[in-house]
DNA sequence: AGTAGCAATGAGAATCATTCCCAACTAAGG
DNA sequence: CCTTAGTTGGGAATGATTCTCATTGCTACT
């Protein structure tokens, strides 16, 4: 994994420094997309400017990718080439995002959909995003008093 | 449509004021999710504080829903009950989001996936989100000089 | 019509994430 | 060593979103 990361950075003429290595370790260890805030919490004496700068560098090198969850804050995870392919399950209450395993049938349907749309809209389709939105077990328990989560389903 | 909106606001003991009506008209007329900036542009003398406040009110009433695109800025559209069911196609360059028609096959696969995940993770799945990410025709033309769009595909 | 009560409005301040800037630092090559 | 270019940390700047508050406008009731 670190080799891959170093290699990809090298392509961009960038170094695989200790800060970057730490970020990769943090993301790899989490097993789910992390927000900058979580990344900073996991690396106490890491200046936020360095966190942003290096996350950006890693994104540009293709080592990390940005995930959009239910809130509007960026969350980051290792690129699929380094971590394996998967989908996301987001909690509409607390915003946490979990990784979930992909299904072959769903993959096929999505690929097909992408092809059709590319044809019809003239887009060059680069990828897609499928997230399930729900309420995590913890939030289900901790809140009987509630009615209207910020609506958010598309399909 | 306005009846629906008024009704839903009434449930929350809120009024369907002219500002709110204007917002609904704007969103209905756009046919795609709009950012606050776009909404303000379409309603020249609308104070931004009112735009945010009322969009929030409409979201809480279930008239509008928030869509997260490729950038981290909120975009808003009418709830599907008022506008019909659809997916999104986002341009990774300019961030614009278009509506696209759903496909029956994809719908079935997604519903199935949601069921499986709900079982396995203990989540109460409320909905899902499927967005295709690509490059719109305009951006394809306007930029031959480019290599690495902020990576963003999940599946 | 008159008025109390409460939601709604507009302007700007406050907050929060993210980006930008710059001076000091470090690694790699000659 | 000595140079060069990428890197770092700290803080300022930016931008979007939320909050505050005094004022205004409905609604219902009289």
Q: Any key phrases for this structure?
A:
homodimer; 155 residues; alpha+beta; Arc Repressor Mutant, subunit A; Dna Ligase, domain 1; 3-stranded antiparallel beta sheet; 3-stranded mixed beta sheet; 7 helices; DNA-binding
How does this model look, in words?
2 copies of one chain form a homodimer. Chain A has helices spanning 2-11, 18-30, 36-42, 48-60, 80-83, 104-121, 137-141, and strands at 34-35, 64-68, 74-78, 87-91, 97-100, 124-135. Chain A has 155 residues and is α+β, with helices and mostly antiparallel strands. Chain A folds into 2 domains: 1-84, Winged helix-like DNA-binding domain superfamily/Winged helix DNA-binding domain (Arc Repressor Mutant, subunit A), CATH 1.10.10; 85-155, Ferric-uptake regulator, C-terminal dimerisarion domain (Dna Ligase, domain 1, 2-Layer Sandwich). In chain A, the strands form 2 sheets. Chain A has a 3-stranded antiparallel beta sheet. A 3-stranded mixed beta sheet of chain A has the order 5-4-6. The longest helix of chain A has 18 residues, at 104-121. The relative contact order of chain A is 0.13. The model of chain A is unreliable at 144-155 (pLDDT under 50). At the A-B interface, β2, β4, α6 and β6 of A face β2, β4, α6 and β6 of B. Chain B binds a DNA duplex (30 and 30 nucleotides) through residues 13-15, 17, 19-20, 36-37, 47-50, 52-54, 56-57, 72-74.
